[in-house]
Amino acid sequence: MKPQKPILLLILFIYSPLFSSAQSEEYLIESFQDEYIELIDYESAGILALGNPLWELEFEFGFEFPFYGELYDRMIWNAEAWGMLTEDEDEAFFMMNFTRGYAFEPINDTIDIESDARFAQVVSNNMRAFVLQYTEYGFFADPFEDSIDVDMNFQFWFYENGVIEVHFGDMDMDGSPIYKSGKGFYCYSSGTGIDTNEVCGPHMGIENPYDEEDGIALKGSYNDFEVTGQIYDVMTDLPPRGWIIRFLPKSVGLLEPDDQITEFSISPNPTISYIQIPEPGSYVTMYDMSGKVRFEGVVTDHHFSVAEFPPGMYIIQMVSGSGSSIGRFIRS
Fold first, then answer.
1. How far apart are CA 224 and CA 237, in angstroms?
2. pTM for the full predicted model
């Protein structure tokens, strides 16, 4: 008898955030309240940048990150919160981007650094992710820094299934005239001060690295916004602690929680030719990230060829006498 279909739900709009959701052809934007959890084990971008507040560094995701139909294993990121995926200064990630720039406090030693950019590769809900965290950040060359203490805390999460999230911690502006609710961050200079006629951020959008006309952005307040294709549009109000803004690929599939479903490791991973099936004789269903079934049937051998599969990430459900289990692999 054929086993019951795997519990794989395509997200057309299954998850319902607390407040807002909007979409484009490739992505949805979700905006909702959750919680903010700081990194515990991390590396310091400030130390790697030798204390330079205008840093630009290359970070390894630790997995193949799918973005607009391509796979990437690393990104370039700078202090403006501008992330690139190619060497051509593309504008792939313009999330919390501020064109005047952010800055950590001067690093006097390498112990107990309070103001820093921190990063780590983590696992959350059985999903690998790369996290970049701005901790107690201020504005670069802030003309009011001697009298006003600005502390901003936010994170960027990049999940192996292509989901991107911005998590907000405490955003203490301490009355800084650079920020005005309903406007955003004003432009400024050390010579002329605040320019209330020009807003320089924060921008909240993503863009195809190879097509600047193909992007999605938030315009307006964090919980009352319109979706545009212009990554230079501005988020006019800062969210409270615990707020999350999510860029969700429409192609992502989610597994419905089930206490009886376990996750198993697949090798080799990534692969170009075959994967090993841990329990020959199991009924196996393989999905790509659009939810299309690439294979379904009983696998009788340890080795299963995926040489004809297009490059990308795949989800496997394996049903055997010991129960149901889920695995993921990347066809490189």
1. 10
2. 0.73
Taking domain 258-331, whether its CATH number is 2.60.40.3080 is answered by: yes
Return residue ranges of the chain for CATH 2.60.40.3080: 258-331
- Measured between alpha carbons, how far is 69 from 74 in angstroms, rounded to an integer? 15
- What's the farthest any 2 CA atoms get from each other in the chain? 77
Q: Stretch 203-209: mean pLDDT, rounded?
A: 96
Q: Reading across the β-sheet that carries 312-320, which strands appear in turn?
A: 261-263, 323-331, 312-320, 282-288, 293-299
Amino acid symbol at 227: V
| Distance from C-alpha of 80 to C-alpha of 53, rounded to nearest angstrom | 10
Q: What does the pLDDT look like over 208-221, one tens digit per residue?
A: 999 999 999 999 99
User: pLDDT tens for residues 41-97?
Assistant: 999 999 999 999 899 999 999 999 999 988 999 999 999 999 999 988 899 999 999
Rounded CA-CA distance 288/14 in Å is 18
Sorted by sequence, the CB contacts under 8 Å of residue 182 that are 6+ apart come out as 221, 236, 237
List, in order, residues 6 or more apart from 257 with CB less than 8 Å away: none
Give the H or E element holding residue 136.
strand 127-139
Residue 281 is encoded by which pair of tokens? 């004789």
- 211, 58, 120, 53 alpha-carbon torsion, rounded to 10°: -110
Q: 224-228 and 293-299 as β-strands: parallel, antiparallel, unpaired?
A: unpaired
* Helix/strand/coil for 47: helix
| Angle (CA) 180 186 187, round 5° | 170
Confidence of residue 265 (pLDDT cuts 50, 70, 90): confident
